[in-house]
Each structure stands twice: as structure tokens, then as C-alpha cells.
């Protein structure tokens, strides 16, 4: 029996099956092949290739973060004024700064936040609300270290 004869026999057996069964077998085979490929890739050590250690992506991203600039209340106030933010309250809290004040546009707060991020300070919590026809209230918390906040437990549904 030759390879061509075996393939022809398999093709005939496949064609004799009902169309719905061929569809199910095709879909199941595709899923099985995808899962087997995923498991095989999990077993392969991708960070090393021919003995050369490649840096992990998260290490690269952490190295790309800007250094943290030391800030005090006067620094925040002066930078706020340069970015059209009038900061009324500037308080240091555990690991960050709580700021509140006024601005004339959301774009001013965006520019201020972008500047702060270049200094290593990230707006973790913030809110903008209309104050009047021409102004907005701004409240923001800036932190220098981005860490995963502890997950709050989900509320149990009331029966």
C-alpha cells in the first residue's frame, strides 16, 4: 500500500461522514491543535535564545520610567501656576501629594499631569468638575511609586 493510496482511502472515509459531523470534528480538531500549541509554547523557555539572555519586558519598561524628582509644596504651587492651575490645597500624604484647586480647562490639567509624569509623579486619583461658566475644580493625588493597590473585597449580594 502506497502513501497516495492511504491518503485516498482517508479522504473517502472523511467524505462518507455527514457534513455536521465533519464540521464538529474540524472545529474540535482546531481547538485541540490550538491548546496543544499553547501548552508546547509554555514549555519552551522563550527569554533565552542560543544562550543569550534577553531582558524581560517589564524590566525594560521599569528602566524607561523617569527618575523621581523631590517635590515640596512650593514646587507644586509654582508648576501649577505655569500650567494654569491655581492650587489652593497642597498636602503631603503617605507616599504622595493631595492637590486641589482651579483651572480654566481640562487641557491645563492634562499638561500639568504630563509634566508631573516626566518628573516621576503619577496622577493616581483625580477629578475635574465645573465650577462656573469659565472654571473647573481640580482634585488629584499624585504618587511617585506605582504599586498595585490592595484589592477591595467585592460586596456580597444581598439576598
Can you walk through the features of this model?
By secondary structure, this protein is an alpha+beta fold. The chain folds into 2 domains: 3-43; 73-143, Ribosomal protein S6/Translation elongation factor EF1B (Alpha-Beta Plaits). Helices cover 44% and strands 24% of the residues. Strand 1 and strand 2 form a beta hairpin. The relative contact order is 0.09. Mean pLDDT is 81; it is low at 147-151.
Helix proportion: 40-55%
CATH second-level architecture of the largest domain: 2-Layer Sandwich
Any idea what the CATH superfamily of the largest domain is called? Ribosomal protein S6/Translation elongation factor EF1B
- The stretches of 5 or more residues where confidence is low (pLDDT under 50) are 147-151
Total of DSSP H or I helical runs spanning 4+ residues:
5
Main structural class = alpha+beta
Give the SSE map.
Layout: H1 3-16, H2 19-43, E1 48-49, E2 52-53, H3 57-64, H4 73-82, E3 85-93, E4 96-103, H5 106-118, E5 122-130, E6 136-143
Antiparallel strand pairs: 1-2, 3-4, 4-6, 5-6
Features:
Alpha-Beta Plaits; 159 residues; 2 domains; single chain; four-stranded antiparallel beta sheet; 6 strands; 44% helix; alpha+beta
Short account of what is shown:
With 159 residues, the chain is of the alpha+beta class. The chain contains 5 helices and 6 strands. Strand 3 and strand 4 form a beta hairpin.
